[in-house]
Amino acid sequence: MALDTDGIAIPPLAEEHRMVRDLVARFVERDLMPLEPAVLKRESEGQRYGLTPEEEAPLLAKAKELGLYGLDVPEEFGGADLPISALMAIEEEMGRTVTPFIFPPDSPNLHMLLAVANPEQRMKYLDPYARGEMRSSIAISEPGAGGDPAGMTTRAVKDGDDWIINGRKIWVSGVPRADFIILMARTGEGKRQEGVTAFIVERGTPGFIIEREIPMIGGRRTYELVFEDCRVHERQILGQLGAGYAPMQLRLNVRRLQMGARCTGMARRALDMLCEQARNRSTFGVRLADRQAIQWWVAEAATKIHTTRLMVRDAAAKMTAGEDVRTEASMLKVHATEMAQEVLDNAMQTFGAMGMTKELPLQLMASQVRVQRIYEGPSEVHRMAIARRMLKG
């Protein structure tokens, strides 16, 4: 537990990293935010939340032109090799818009592949993935198991040089566009993390079935997957047999820091909108900005945004130093999602009836933050984990 350690300072962003962050901020404001009205309109009409191919293609081209591909990808794969702290500053800027766009590749799965992929897998999967030429997803949760790995029942059984996988996964994001998924399955008899192995399963593998699409609040969609005698070669084992839990935890820690940074960005956007509305709107002859209730919302939001950003930077610094940040990541995940939920709700309240419409991005952000209180582990499970580690001493 890294919480009690001393000597890990929170370094300021280096000048070159601030320049990249500022470049991303301009990209968000000039290229992504102008697309919000179209994105919000389609979502409000029941269409898919997302970008059209005609909208996404120029964004990808411009991002590549600006050098915003592979920001945390090692230089050997053609990336910028930014540290986690710089990446999180960029994620905060990206959180300020509801236009759904990411700079390839998706960082959490990248870090898992970097940690354990063997030379053959690095060439076949990691190299094109790092260049943004492949997409991936990860399948962990199962129906009825929730955030408890002890409930994982998907099993892989050895058959010669192959493994035969049977089971079911749920709440998996990005499946239709994924070239491969990272699948967690039991290969041993352990009750929790023991005996869990990660497999790379390519799209189109016989027995890999997309059972159904599940619409989520916030415009997102997840998928339920079925594996029926799905046969993969032993070369598809990612990492060590029976030791898939630790690299999965690394991936989860990166995602939880990313969520903290994104929530900070969303709260910043909500606070900016709240302040603008308060300055320009009067009720009963008094500006909203002059009402104490609004002033306290502003003060609380600014303070909590600042503390959340420091928590992100602290966890990033410790992760860079090689420390175990499971506790910090859990604290951040709980605090950031609940902070953003509060700031967004107050911003919506400040806008009155307009805040309830689907014309503003606030409602979509609020729904997305609500989902994040469940994703990557529910808040209650994280609180339980934090308390358990603290009580152990």
Automatic annotation (TrEMBL):
Residue ranges occupied by any Acyl-CoA dehydrogenase/oxidase C-terminal domain in the UniProt entry: 243-391
KW Oxidoreductase (keyword) present: yes
Keyword annotations: FAD, Flavoprotein, Oxidoreductase
Record keyword Iron present: no
Residue ranges of every copy of the Acyl-CoA dehydrogenase/oxidase N-terminal domain listed in the record: 15-133
Domain of life where this protein originates: Bacteria
Cofactor(s) named in the record: FAD
Acyl-CoA oxidase/dehydrogenase middle domain: residues covered: 138-230
One Pfam family, short name: Acyl-CoA_dh_M
Family, per entry: Belongs to the acyl-CoA dehydrogenase family.
Protein name (database record): Acyl-CoA dehydrogenase
Organism from which the protein derives: Belnapia arida
